[in-house]
Write a structure and sequence with these properties.
Elements (H helix, E strand, L loop, with lengths): L6 H6 L1 H8 L1 H19 L6 E3 L7 H10 L4 E3 L1
Parallel strand pairs: 1-2
């Protein structure tokens, strides 16, 4: 990213396109870590989750399944 480029320009350009194309691979690579993280968090229906730096959102989606409709996930 250049000094004059905004975050929106950066991520809406070629870098963002490359990242989006590799999203599935990254999710697969990090799947074991995601599973371990969610197991350690021991999420229950009704829990709240804040996913900082959520990337493609795969972890947030898994957390949302765990906390159910009574819970809340912010990503």
């Amino acid at each position: 990213m250049t000094a004059t480029m905004t975050q929106a320009e950066y991520w809406n350009g070629a870098v963002g396109q490359r990242w989006a194309r590799s999203q599935g691979v990254l999710d697969a690579v990090f799947a074991p870590l995601t599973e371990a993280l969610l197991a350690a968090a021991d999420l229950r229906p009704g829990d709240g989750v804040l996913d900082v730096g959520c990337g493609s959102g795969a972890t947030a989606l898994s957390a949302a399944e765990a906390v159910g409709a009574a819970g809340r996930v912010v990503a």
